[in-house]
């Protein structure tokens, strides 16, 4: 009998708990907590693919690169994505491997450095919106814009920052490898940070671009591509709330696809850049044939799969 397929997109709180615990050892320990829950899910018979975020980690690399620019070349953004996929993947697959040995599970985790194709004509490239890197004064910002072609913008009175595009994912380049590994019972860590954004040129060759892909959208695409039974997003809250941040705020255990679409369209229930894209990613998975999506915090992943925690969104 074929095992059920689960895609989990783990949130930033599985890597950084708070501002006092941001070092690499801190992140390793935080991933260890999430890993233990994933291992128990795998123990119960699920085949699992795991996506993760990388925003702060890319920021750390960019800052180190800026500080060392007087001596070493700066690191391009697509290479930062690749670096974080390798580092975070290593930490997660080692934690999972230790959990498997401790629990006597005959499984292995593997990380795939994953490219995700985007459309070079995506409107997002004309309207870059994602701030990255360090704050600069206006003179520095305009110098980088002139010298390096950066798009720069003043950020809420705190200084100037580079802003980049966030295009939609179209295709997971390493899809065949991911599918083969899952078929052979590997736990696969992939589309890290939403994937390394690449575009195809006129000759069919791939090239990295300076962009960031939302990891929930890429994980939803992954779930659709591999035919996952369930798509799960973990975040800092244990359930989805309607009327978020208002006196009428209320937690919900279940939403139909139609209800989720209606609430998203109202624009008042889910915070932009936070819960809203998670709901949108769940909708995309369900609209492309997925059975159910789940949003929960990492410590409740097993209970959420059993219908005892989190919010379920169903077709």
What can you see in these coordinates?
With 315 residues, the chain is an alpha/beta fold. The chain folds into two domains: 5-119 and 171-239 and 291-302, 3-Layer(aba) Sandwich (Carbamate kinase), CATH 3.40.1160; 128-164, no CATH class. Helix content is 38%, strand content 22%. It has nine helices and 17 strands. The strands form four sheets. An eight-stranded mixed β-sheet has the order 3-9-2-1-12-16-17-15, sandwiched between helices. Strand 1 (5-10), helix 1 and strand 2 (47-52) form a beta-alpha-beta unit.
Which short descriptors sum up this protein?
8-stranded mixed β-sheet; 315 residues; 2 domains; alpha/beta
The residue fraction in helices comes out at: 25-40%
Helical stretch tally = 9
What's the CATH H-level homologous superfamily of the largest domain? Acetylglutamate kinase-like
Major sheet: arrangement of strands: 3-9-2-1-12-16-17-15
Radius of gyration, in angstroms, nearest whole number:
20 Å
What is the makeup of the main sheet? Answer: 8 strands, mixed
- Element order: H for helix, E for strand: EHEHHEEEHEEEHEEEHEEEEHHEHE
Work out the number of β strands.
Answer: 17
Question: Layout of SSEs?
Answer:
Blueprint: E1 5-10, H1 24-43, E2 47-52, H2 55-67, H3 77-103, E3 109-111, E4 115-117, E5 130-136, H4 138-148, E6 151-154, E7 160-164, E8 171-172, H5 175-183, E9 187-189, E10 196-200, E11 206-208, H6 215-226, E12 230-234, E13 240-242, E14 250-252, E15 254-256, H7 257-266, H8 275-287, E16 292-296, H9 301-305, E17 311-314
Parallel strand pairs: 1-2, 1-12, 2-9, 3-9, 4-10, 12-16, 15-17
Antiparallel strand pairs: 4-8, 5-7, 6-7, 10-11, 13-14, 16-17
Helix pairs in contact: 1-3, 2-3, 6-8, 7-8
